[in-house]
Amino acid sequence: MPTPDSAPLPADRFLNRELSWLDFNSRVLELAEDDSLPLLERVKFLAIFASNLDEFYMVRIAGLKRRQSTGLTVRSPDGLTIREQLERVTARTQELVQRHSDVFNDDVLPRLEEAGIRIVRWDELEEGAALKLREYFRDQVFPVLTPLAVDPAHPFPYISGLSLNLAVSVHDPDTNAPRFARLKVPNNVPRFVPVGSHDSPATAVFLPLEDLIAAHLNQLFPGLDVLDHHFFRVTRNADVEVEEDRDEDLLQALERELARRRFGPAVRLEVAEPMDPRILEVLISELEVSPADVVHVPGLLDLASLMALYDLDRPELKDEPFVPTTHPRLSEGETPKSVFATLREGDVLVHHPYHSFATSVQRFIEQAAADPHVLAIKQTLYRTSGDSPIVNALIEAAEAGKQVVVLVEIKARFDEEANISWARSLERAGCHVVYGLVGLKTHCKTALVVRREQGVIRRYCHIGTGNYNPKTARIYEDLGILTADPRVGADLTDLFNVLTGYSRQTNYRTLMVAPHGVRNGLIEKIRREVRHAGEGRPAGIRIKANSIVDEKIIDALYEASRAGVRVELFVRGICALRPGVPGLSENIRVRSIVGRFLEHSRVISFVNGGEDEWWLGSADLMHRNLDRRVEVLLRVCDERSRVQLEKTLAPAMAPGVRCWELRSDGSWEQHEGRDYQAELMERIHEIAN
Prior knowledge:
Blueprint: H1 17-33, H2 39-69, H3 82-114, E1 117-119, H4 127-141, E2 148-150, E3 164-172, E4 177-184, E5 192-194, E6 204-208, H5 209-214, H6 217-220, E7 225-236, H7 250-261, E8 266-272, H8 277-287, E9 294-297, H9 307-310, E10 331-332, E11 335-336, H10 339-344, E12 348-352, H11 361-370, E13 374-381, H12 389-399, E14 403-408, H13 416-428, E15 432-434, E16 441-442, E17 445-453, E18 456-464, E19 476-483, H14 486-500, E20 511-514, H15 518-534, E21 540-545, H16 551-562, E22 566-571, E23 588-592, E24 598-599, E25 602-606, E26 613-617, H17 623-627, E27 629-636, H18 639-649, E28 659-662, E29 668-671, H19 676-688
Parallel strand pairs: 1-6, 8-9, 13-14, 14-15, 16-27, 19-24, 21-22, 22-23
Antiparallel strand pairs: 2-4, 3-4, 3-7, 5-6, 7-8, 10-11, 12-19, 13-17, 17-18, 18-19, 20-27, 21-25, 23-28, 25-26, 26-27, 28-29
């Protein structure tokens, strides 16, 4: 008879990843529902929730529907068929959309009005305001509108993804026949049209653009009677699948697929309530969606556009501004220090947005570009900003005669076009540009600077958890190591030879590299903790990640729990592991923190018999990261950096912190308490001063 430790793992040990993601977005929505937060911060979370849901449908639901259309009968690890997953996701989504609309319509809108920020409808306007808006419509909006008739001579028009539209019913008095037309709300005109001059900063009144258009439909259909109009919005499959042929230029293949993406099949139809059933039937038929794909929205569609309200200059309705500090080892007072001189004294662990990206990672690349002793810069770019100082520095370095090698991942989802543009700019400047590896996305965040110092070559490195993007570095929580450790420099040299050449190296000194080394490396270290526990030595595992989905790693964590190893997981988003199940995972605790900053870093620590081992890098514990991406985890060898990581991670798992805890039934329970991120801001500020 098997012992409890060797008993088979139960079949229901995994949670559904799609439903777990919806739970994450529900946590975002809970912040919008939290009336203790500043009002415009709640507006921001309403917009983030809507934007998240758009991407979820464009990618995840689109993927499920694509697999369903192929007739695949595979079940998810939690045992659900594709049809069952779609049914559950649809029901959960409609519930969340209702909550989203309720908090906006019934709570946030009235509070905005109390604060002097109003969103009005056309019939609420005074005559003078309406007259000015008629002029605005005539001069700014009417010229860009294109009503498209639907009849035997005019087929149903293409409806672009995420566009806001009006379905208009008109009557022809000459033929006594009903007509139908589609009118797209232009996306190059502000969604919320200012009403009045807004001379007072305490007062701002807006009219939704679709309301302005609806009030002037008679001008668009002269000679016809406008009977009715309804607002709707379509979401399309936007996941690019590039057929990578070793003999075809990857850039050209991706550009071809991007052109196809806008014509992807519809996966969601949002309609504003109430919707005429006959019009809805036409939309369902012409868009080739099922009634289950229809999401009924009370009130305004596309609340992602609420970010325009967040941008209002109303500081009293927002969080107090936070100014990142320069890492104390990278400056002397207000005077920047040489990054190279600092790193020769030891590693620097930077924690964004608490530490300034501009005065650490960005300065590292900028100083390298300007330094006459630097011979080469090699860097990976996954996502960066529209006006990227990092890219500009690399261009300047190439123009100064340095060897610059940049791996631009042109398959980075939704940043493909921007990355293609950056790649071409870098090529024109003389940089050596590589587009990635066939069949893999290069997701690791690495930079290598080669410098000649007194006749000796020294390598300086950065390995991080976040993108080289100064804009997101102000709102994404990420970690990075700046180091002159020769072992790390040798590893990055080898890694870039893999990325740019034909090297097939898989073994490294200080790195675990996916797709060959991360899963197996982590499982081996988890099993090492099991051995330590069995021998009575200190054992424990802590993991901070965006998502934990990989079944093999989850099973290894279950085995660790059954061996008595304490496992603490800090997961922002998806978690397919079921904690707290007797005999399976009673030693595992899962916590999520969603707040002002997007928790984005990936950190793993092992007690390792009392000799703590720390790793950080770009990899989430998901199939795509471990099997289909180039990811890097770096072993943190510097003692000061390990202490700093402990001081960063331990408070997140401490009692009395505001968080959500995952229960064994898959539900999340919110706990009130101290604001972990606020405590980190205060601590960083105290250290800087």
